[in-house]
Amino acid sequence: MKDLKISIITINYNNCSGLEQTLKSVAAQNCRNYEHIVIDGGSTDGSKELIESYSDKISYWVSEPDNGVYNAMNKGALAAKGDYCMFVNSGDQLHSSKTIAEIIANEPSTDIVMGMVENMSTSGTSSVWHPCEEDKISLVYLRDNPIHHPGALIRTSLQQNIPYNESLRICSDRQFFIEALILNNCSYSTIPVVMNRFAPQGLSGIQNDRKMIEEDQIYLKELFPPRLIRDIFATNDRIQQTTRRMASYYTLTNKILKLNNSILDFADVVLYLKKHFRNK
Asked: 143-148 long-range CB contacts below 8 Å, 24 or more apart?
């Protein structure tokens, strides 16, 4: 397992300052079981010159116009020669100088291996995202709880066989994981490693719920027969409605119990006052 090699893929477009942070975090790794691939979309902000200055630390790079984020990610995957692909995009950073060594020490072997992600906020605070365990993976779960792509190691052969859907703008990674884990029943595991320090910028940080819903419907219709989707999601919606009703019931019950306890407490006070004044 010591010979395991990780293909770290970075995509960038006119984000020179963020790219520099990413390049530094990769170059700082304390082991060399990786290759670094950088796909730049023809930036005009000095990114190309920055990449050139790191060329002795980069295995492969290109700076040319592309057709968007997922086109660039597909380019990177096709250039990969490692056992696993790991996307650390411009502005993101490997969590520490030991990240790659820690990943390899955990001996990843499944098709998809998930670690943790430190999500950074614009205010400077952070929170750690934890992946779900294998027994929770289902179509409905992945629809409602998308996998956090920056925490994923994806077997290179799998990544190359299932390219990202370049017609989508923000949900192609969601489609990829559903196609890989549900349709192809790929193996999945988690490791206790914080892989990525995820920057609050780029497409992955855009709160575009309407667009996400639209694109979810597009790729789900491409992947599954409509009646199957209707049955699965209708059943799930019924379960959620029942859960919400039960939650409302228990909330109401608790309020009644609290009110009842308050009434009893008030009654005790009244009895005490009656007894007190009667004695006087």
From this structure: 143/178, 143/216, 143/220, 143/233, 146/173, 146/174, 146/177, 147/114, 147/173, 147/174, 147/177, 148/117, 148/198
- Any bridge partners for residue 7, and if so which? 35, 85
Q: Which residue type does 175 have?
A: Q
Give the model's pLDDT for residue 224.
86
How far, in Å, are 16, 58, 118, 133 from residue 47 at the CA level?
Answer: 5, 14, 25, 38
Q: Nearest-5° angle of CA 69, CA 74, CA 76? A: 95
pLDDT above 70 as % of the chain? 79
CA pair distance 22, 54, nearest whole angstrom: 11
pLDDT at 201: 58
Kindly state the helix (H) or strand (E) to which residue 197 belongs, with its residue range. Answer: strand 188-198
Question: CA dihedral in degrees (192, 195, 200, 206; nearest 10)?
Answer: -80
Report the mean per-residue pLDDT for the chain.
Answer: 86
C-alpha 236/C-alpha 25 separation (Å) is 42
CB 62 within 8 A of CB 56: no
* Contact status, residue 164 vs residue 78, Cβ threshold 8 Å: no
Cβ neighbour number for residue 100 with a 10 Å cutoff: 24
CA separation for the pair 200, 7 (Å, rounded): 23
Q: How far apart are CA 94 and CA 87, in angstroms?
A: 10
Question: What is the torsional sign of CA 266, 267, 272, 277?
Answer: positive
Could you give the CA distance from residue 19 to residue 7 in angstroms, rounded to a whole number?
A: 17
